[in-house]
Design goal:
There is one protein chain. This protein has 399 residues and is mainly β. It has helices at 151-155, 253-259, 339-343, 345-348; strands at 13-14, 22-23, 39-41, 47-51, 56-61, 67-72, 78-81, 85-90, 93-98, 101-105, 110-114, 118-124, 130-133, 137-142, 145-150, 161-166, 174-176, 181-186, 192-198, 204-209, 216-218, 222-227, 230-235, 243-246, 271-276, 280-285, 290-295, 300-305, 313-317, 322-326, 329-333, 353-355, 360-364, 369-374, 380-386, 393-397.
């Protein structure tokens, strides 16, 4: 059941019985009932996972081109993934799906796994939540409630809430740390103004100033939260060691305001990208604790850091083409691929640029198409995948 509303308090108050708002799947699909034990495989089991407008979850095996519908859920407004779990977000709930493919890092090498696909259930609350996956948990921010889901429980095929606490209603974030989470706290006007460091039991430890807190990402160095004046970095996911990385002196206010919104990058890299105004890209280097501004020279709508030896960045131009920046300059571009989707505001809002070590992937909801692009080969389109229904939401799983 869903917890009833209580008066908002300035202090965060732990609610008892928090696990009651995580409900198991009511009608398991064939995929949900798969009881095969996970097995280790020799190669990364990379898949493209998409969700169409009706809530069908499609799995495309990038190794052999095989396709399956792995689940049917209620339609979603957004999709977030950590490479294994899928979080389908809509008004009032989040559906959690185990994609059944994942990669586990052991520092100097990796292990690749394939297991059963499972719809684990729903996490419920008010409003359209934000979801932030992390190594030790997944943060969910509903309207007036911050929730932390336990990662070990998801691996066991169940949903368990580490904490569920009341917060003043605002558009905010619950950002997992190695222990506990950062929870945004609003000012009197309802805008995020601070980060509360919350322990695993939901109690407050300290506060970190962060006006305009918005985007967040986990890098090889630590956990990042974007603020109006720069970024807060928690090295190793430890808030006790938090540092501030300010924007360069003289940064234009319009560039700074857009940069705080969304960070994007190849998984677990030190450098990440964020939009800077309409024509630029900020590169945040969490290892060097520095920002660099790259002017693309034309309107852009998405940016994500590939962060390879050429320091490449993939950018989606306003004309629908994918541009590859290398060392801060445009090195290659595709033809306009998603021009039709960009003309439709609803479709444009769900276009994703997803990158891994070798490729850039792009979805075209209006075009009913997925593209695989090689950024190291003049942005060559290596494969295209037509879809029967609009691929409204896109994630890469198995990585």
């Amino acid at each position: 059941m869903r917890l009833s509303a209580v008066p908002l308090l300035l202090a965060l108050t732990v609610l008892t019985g928090c696990a009651a708002s995580a409900t198991p799947a009511a009608d398991p699909t064939a995929a949900t009932a798969d009881t095969r034990a996970p097995r280790e495989v020799a190669e990364p089991p990379h898949h493209l996972t998409t969700i169409d407008p009706g809530g069908r979850v499609h799995h495309l095996d990038l190794a052999d081109g095989g396709r399956d519908v792995i689940a049917e859920i209620k339609p979603v407004e957004r999709l977030v993934s950590d490479g294994r779990y899928l979080f389908g977000i809509r008004e009032g709930s989040v559906t959690v799906i185990d994609s059944g493919v994942w990669t586990r890092s052991h520092g100097d090498h990796f292990h690749y796994h394939v297991g059963p696909v499972r719809v684990l259930g729903e996490v419920e609350g008010d409003g359209v939540p934000t979801v932030v996956p992390g190594v030790t948990g997944t943060g969910v921010m509903f309207r007036g409630e911050a929730v932390l889901l336990a990662a070990d429980a998801l691996a066991d095929g169940r949903i368990a809430e580490t904490f569920r606490i009341r917060v003043a209603a605002h558009d905010g974030l619950t950002v997992p740390l190695t222990e506990g989470a950062l929870v945004t706290e609003p000012d009197a006007a309802g805008a995020p103004a601070r980060l509360r460091v919350v322990t695993a039991d939901g109690s407050e430890r300290s506060r970190i100033p962060c006006v305009g807190a918005a985007g967040t990402i986990a890098t090889a160095v630590g956990v990042v939260v974007g603020c109006a004046d720069g970024a807060v970095l928690a090295p190793g996911g430890d808030a006790a060691r938090a540092e501030r990385i300010p924007y360069p002196a003289g940064a234009a206010p319009a560039d700074v305001a857009s940069a705080a919104g969304v960070f994007a990058a190849r998984e677990s890299r030190p450098r990440v990208a964020a939009l800077a105004g309409e024509r630029g890209v900020w590169i945040l280097d969490t290892r060097a604790r520095s920002w660099a501004l790259q002017d693309v020279g034309e309107p852009i709508v998405r940016a994500t850091a590939i962060d390879d030896v050429q320091q490449r960045v993939a950018v989606l131009g306003a004309d629908g083409s994918v541009l590859v920046l290398s060392q801060g300059r445009v090195a290659a571009r595709t033809a306009p691929l998603v021009a039709e989707s960009l003309r439709d505001p609803d479709a444009a809002a769900t276009i994703e640029l997803v990158v891994d070590q070798d490729h850039v992937y792009l979805n075209g909801p209006s075009e009913r198409m997925l593209w695989e692009i090689d950024p190291a080969d003049d942005a060559r389109v290596t494969r295209t995948f037509a879809t029967d229904t609009p691929p409204v939401h896109l994630a890469e799983t198995g990585r």
